[in-house]
Design a protein that fits this description.
The structure holds 2 protein chains of 2 kinds. By secondary structure, chain A is mostly helical. Helix content of chain A is 81%, strand content 0%. Chain B contains 7 helices and 8 strands, in the order βαβββαααβαβαββα. In chain B, 41% of the residues lie in helices and 14% in strands. Chain B has a 6-stranded mixed sheet, with helices on both faces. Chain B is globular. Classes of the chains: A mainly alpha, B alpha/beta.
C-alpha cells in the first residue's frame, strides 16, 4: 500500500515534468535528478557528503542520548528530581533550536562541535521528557510487586522499572532520531563547509534545483532507513512482547 | 476516609473472603495489609508483628497482570525466589514445582505475552506461593477473567489451597466465588468501610465445582447476597432521604 502511494507520486512527478507543465527550474524531472545524483556519486561528492552528515548525526545523537537517559529516568522516578529539573527542561524545550545557531557558532565555531551542539540542544530536552514519561508509564503494580518482595528501591529501579520501560524508551529514541536529522540539516544549512545541508545551500546559489531535490529525497531515504532499522532492532531486542501463538 | 472501625482477625491457615460493593474499601484494606498503603490510625499485625511495610511474609496476587514481560514464566517465579534470597541452585527446581502446582509446567519457557489471562494469574499465584509467605493476599485476582476461566481458576485455587494450606485473605465482589473458596466470608459496608457481618461457610472439603448447585451452597450464597443487598438498599434509601 505504501509502495503504491510512492509510485503514484513518482508517476505524477514524472507526468508534471514530461508534459512541460512546470518549468524545470521549479520542478526538475526525475531523470534530471537521478542524473545529477549519479554524477555526484561518481565524483565521490555524494559519498563524502553522506558520510560526514551521518558521522555528525551519530555522534550528536549518541551524546544527547547518553545524557538524556539517566536524567529522564531520574526525574521519572523521583519527585525531588522532577521538581528540580522538569521545569527547566520544559522551559528550554520551548526555545527554538534555530535561534541557538548564532550562539553555537559564537561558542564553538563552524566545525563539527557546533553540529553536535545543535543536535544536542534539539534532541536532549525532548528525549528527557519522553524518557521521563516512559518511566512513569511503568505499571504501578510492577513496582508494588518489587516492594512485596522486599526489594530495595535501587534494585526495583534496575530490575523492574528500567527493563519494563525499555521498549518504550527505544521507541522514544527512534522518534527523537528523526528530529535529530532535521537539526543536523538546519545546522549544516547555516554554517558548514561539508555535509548534505551544506551541499543544498550551495546548490541554491547556482539554481541547481535538481541537486536540491536529489538531496531532499536522499534525506528522506536516510531518515526512513534509520527509522526502519531502529524498528527492526527494536523487534529483535523486545521479541518477548510478540505473541507467537 | 475509606475505612473506619474495621475489625477482622484471620486465623492461621484460614481462607477468608472479603466481599462488598465496589468502593467499599476492600482493596484499600488489602493494600494496607500488604504494607503498600499507609494508614492514619489503627493497627494491623501478622503474628503479633505490626505491619509497617511490605514483606516476604505476605505474598500478593494483584488484580492486574504483574508478570514481568521480559522474563519467561519460570523466570518470573525465579525472580521472586531470588529476591527472597533463595539459594541460586534451588530456584529452578522450586519454580518448576510451583508451576506444576498450577498446571503450567509445560509453559515454563513461554513469555507472558504468549499466555492467556487465566494462565498469567496462575503463574502469579505460583510466584506468590513459591517463596512460602505466611499469608496470601489476593485482590480480585480473577476479576478480569471471563466466567468460564474464572470458574476454572476457582477450582484450581481451591485444590491448591486444600493441598498446601496457608492463610488467605481474598478480596472479591463475586459472592459465589467468595462462598465457594472460603472458610469465612466477611461482608463489608460502604464508606466508611467496616466489617458488617462474618458468615461461617461450613461446607465440607475438598470442594468440587458441583457444590455450587447444592441447596446448602445456594442458601449461603443467598445469605451473603442479602447482607450486601440490605447494605446497598440502606444506602439507596439514605440517598433518597437526603435528596
Amino acid at each position: 500500500m505504501a509502495a503504491l502511494v510512492f509510485v503514484t507520486l513518482a508517476l505524477a512527478w514524472y507526468a508534471a515534468t514530461a508534459t512541460g507543465l512546470i518549468r524545470p527550474l521549479f520542478l526538475p524531472s526525475p531523470g534530471q535528478v537521478l542524473n545529477r545524483l549519479s554524477d555526484l556519486w561518481q565524483s565521490g561528492q555524494l559519498r563524502a557528503d553522506v558520510s560526514v552528515s551521518v558521522y555528525r548525526i551519530t555522534l550528536g545523537f549518541v551524546i544527547s542520548t547518553i545524557f538524556a537517559l539517566p536524567i529522564g529516568v531520574l526525574i521519572g522516578c523521583y519527585r525531588v528530581w522532577e521538581a528540580a529539573i522538569e521545569p527547566l527542561v520544559d522551559f528550554v524545550r520551548y526555545m527554538p533550536v534555530v535561534a541557538f545557531v548564532p550562539l553555537t557558532i559564537l561558542w564553538t565555531g563552524t566545525g563539527d562541535a557546533q553540529k553536535f551542539l545543535i543536535i544536542f540542544i534539539g534532541t536532549f530536552f525532548q528525549q528527557v521528557l519522553l524518557v521521563m514519561d516512559n518511566v512513569r508509564s511503568v505499571p504501578r503494580d510492577f513496582i508494588n510487586l518489587g516492594r512485596t518482595l522486599e526489594m530495595p528501591d535501587r534494585r526495583i529501579l534496575r530490575r523492574i522499572v528500567i527493563p519494563s520501560a525499555m521498549p518504550a524508551i527505544w521507541d522514544s529514541m527512534r522518534i527523537s532520531l528523526g528530529w535529530a536529522w532535521t537539526w543536523l540539516v538546519v545546522a549544516e544549512l547555516v554554517a558548514a563547509t561539508s555535509g548534505l545541508g551544506y551541499r543544498i545551500t550551495t546548490a541554491q546559489r547556482f539554481f541547481q534545483t535538481d541537486l536540491i531535490f536529489g538531496y531532499l529525497l536522499l534525506l528522506g531515504i536516510l531518515g526512513l532507513a534509520t527509522d526502519q532499522g531502529m524498528k527492526f532492532l527494536g523487534r529483535r531486542f523486545f521479541r518477548y512482547l510478540e505473541v507467537h501463538r | 476516609m475509606a475505612l473506619r472501625g474495621f475489625d477482622l482477625s484471620v486465623g492461621e491457615n484460614e481462607f477468608v473472603a472479603l466481599v462488598g460493593t465496589s468502593g467499599c474499601g476492600k482493596s484499600t484494606l488489602l493494600s494496607i495489609a500488604a504494607g503498600l498503603e499507609t494508614y492514619d490510625e489503627g493497627s494491623i499485625a501478622v503474628d503479633g508483628e505490626p505491619v509497617t511495610r511490605p514483606g516476604l511474609d505476605r505474598g500478593v496476587v494483584f488484580q492486574s497482570y504483574t508478570l514481568l514481560p521480559w522474563l519467561t514464566t519460570i523466570g518470573n517465579v525465579e525472580f521472586a525466589l531470588r529476591a527472597a534470597g533463595t539459594r541460586r541452585r534451588d530456584t529452578e527446581d522450586i519454580a518448576r514445582d510451583h508451576l506444576a502446582l498450577v498446571g503450567l509446567d509445560a509453559f515454563a519457557e513461554a513469555y507472558p505475552a504468549e499466555l492467556s489471562g487465566g494462565m498469567k494469574q496462575r503463574v502469579a499465584i505460583a510466584r506468590a506461593l513459591s517463596y512460602r509467605p505466611k499469608i496470601l493476599l489476593m485482590d480480585e485476582p480473577f476479576g478480569a477473567l471471563d466466567a468460564l476461566t474464572r470458574h476454572h481458576m476457582q477450582e484450581l485455587l481451591t485444590a491448591v489451597w486444600e493441598k498446601h494450606r496457608l492463610t488467605v485473605l481474598f478480596v472479591t465482589h463475586d459472592v459465589e466465588e467468595a462462598v465457594y473458596l472460603s472458610d469465612r466470608v466477611a461482608v463489608m459496608t460502604n464508606s466508611p468501610g467496616r466489617v458488617k457481618s462474618l458468615i461461617e461457610i461450613g461446607l465440607s472439603r475438598p470442594r468440587r465445582y458441583e457444590l455450587v448447585s447444592t441447596p446448602e451452597f445456594q442458601a449461603l450464597q443467598a445469605r451473603v447476597l442479602h447482607e450486601i443487598r440490605s447494605e446497598s438498599i440502606a444506602i439507596a434509601a439514605l440517598g433518597t432521604a437526603l435528596s
